[in-house]
């Protein structure tokens, strides 16, 4: 039974604040928000009307992004000055999170744009090969170990992601490989020498290769990676027909891969060579 009618049960407080009773019990256990009175007979928790404003403060601060420990420490003694200082500090935290989310959003949008463009290029009746005027681009690269099989390529790619994350590099959510031109001419289409991640403004890093702006011949290969040879043969034949000289290694950009499909038959790889008029 309640001590007096000015107290609210834990169920009533949970209903008014739209939170669970378990949350209020947890707040009590950690010393953040304790009931005004606990019935000694049954252990039921009751809260005073004045405590509801205090709980409002806790829930609002939690929504702003403060941890429970930060809230508990702050509310030991808080006034206008301490609250203003704490909110200003949180603004800096929020700004950093917003900047991070904007960067992630731009990376996701870039991935969507590439996938939509690839779907258009791979549509029935569309020519599969084209010339593009590529912009300057930076790639975070790591070597692929011999014997350059899919296993070594996969390991190098995972190392790219891990090292880029450790260095907080602004990578795009995409990977790729570089295949030396001499290996392609020898029909060894899958023996990549480098794995890479496209990056943005990486600064001075010995692992970053800067691709120049220039004209590139491109083809979108659809299918599993081991079948990529047919697309290389088609692209090289087209370059000969167009009297274009291939003057770079091959850059393969994964457009639709294990990140976006479980079916290797749906994989899309953009293959690009820098070219010049022969």
Automatic annotation (TrEMBL):
<dbReference type="Pfam" id="PF06445">
    <property type="entry name" value="GyrI-like"/>
</dbReference>
<protein>
    <submittedName>
        <fullName>MerR family transcriptional regulator</fullName>
    </submittedName>
</protein>
<dbReference type="InterPro" id="IPR000551">
    <property type="entry name" value="MerR-type_HTH_dom"/>
</dbReference>
<keyword id="KW-0804">Transcription</keyword>
<keyword id="KW-0805">Transcription regulation</keyword>
<dbReference type="InterPro" id="IPR009061">
    <property type="entry name" value="DNA-bd_dom_put_sf"/>
</dbReference>
<dbReference type="InterPro" id="IPR011256">
    <property type="entry name" value="Reg_factor_effector_dom_sf"/>
</dbReference>
<keyword id="KW-0678">Repressor</keyword>
<feature type="domain" description="HTH merR-type">
    <location>
        <begin position="7"/>
        <end position="77"/>
    </location>
</feature>
<dbReference type="InterPro" id="IPR047057">
    <property type="entry name" value="MerR_fam"/>
</dbReference>
<keyword id="KW-0238">DNA-binding</keyword>
<dbReference type="Pfam" id="PF13411">
    <property type="entry name" value="MerR_1"/>
</dbReference>
<dbReference type="GO" id="GO:0003700">
    <property type="term" value="F:DNA-binding transcription factor activity"/>
</dbReference>
<dbReference type="GO" id="GO:0003677">
    <property type="term" value="F:DNA binding"/>
</dbReference>
<dbReference type="InterPro" id="IPR029442">
    <property type="entry name" value="GyrI-like"/>
</dbReference>
């Amino acid at each position: 039974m309640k001590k007096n009618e000015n107290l609210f049960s834990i169920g009533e407080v949970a209903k008014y604040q739209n939170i669970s009773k378990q949350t209020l019990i947890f707040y009590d256990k950690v010393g953040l928000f304790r009931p005004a009175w606990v019935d000694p007979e049954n252990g039921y928790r009751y809260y005073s009307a004045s405590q509801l404003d205090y709980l409002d403060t806790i829930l609002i601060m939690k929504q702003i992004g403060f941890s429970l420990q930060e809230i508990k420490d702050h509310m030991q003694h808080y006034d206008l000055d301490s609250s203003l200082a704490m909110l200003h500090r949180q603004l800096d935290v929020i700004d950093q999170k917003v900047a991070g989310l904007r960067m992630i959003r731009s990376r996701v949008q870039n991935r969507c744009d590439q996938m939509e463009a690839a779907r258009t290029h791979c549509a029935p009746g569309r020519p599969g090969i084209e010339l593009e005027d590529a912009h300057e681009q930076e790639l975070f690269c790591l070597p692929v170990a011999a014997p350059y099989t899919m296993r070594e390529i996969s390991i190098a790619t995972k190392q790219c992601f891990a090292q880029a994350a450790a260095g907080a590099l602004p990578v795009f959510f995409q990977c790729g490989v570089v295949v030396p031109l001499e290996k392609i001419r020898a029909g060894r289409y899958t023996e990549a020498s480098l794995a890479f991640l496209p990056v943005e403004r990486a600064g001075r890093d010995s692992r970053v290769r800067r691709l120049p702006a220039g004209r590139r011949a491109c083809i979108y290969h659809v299918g599993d990676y081991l079948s990529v040879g047919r697309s290389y043969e088609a692209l090289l034949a087209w370059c000969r027909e167009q009297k274009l000289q291939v003057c770079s290694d091959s850059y393969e950009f994964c457009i639709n891969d294990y990140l976006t499909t479980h079916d290797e038959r749906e994989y899309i790889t953009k293959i690009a060579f820098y070219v010049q008029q022969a």
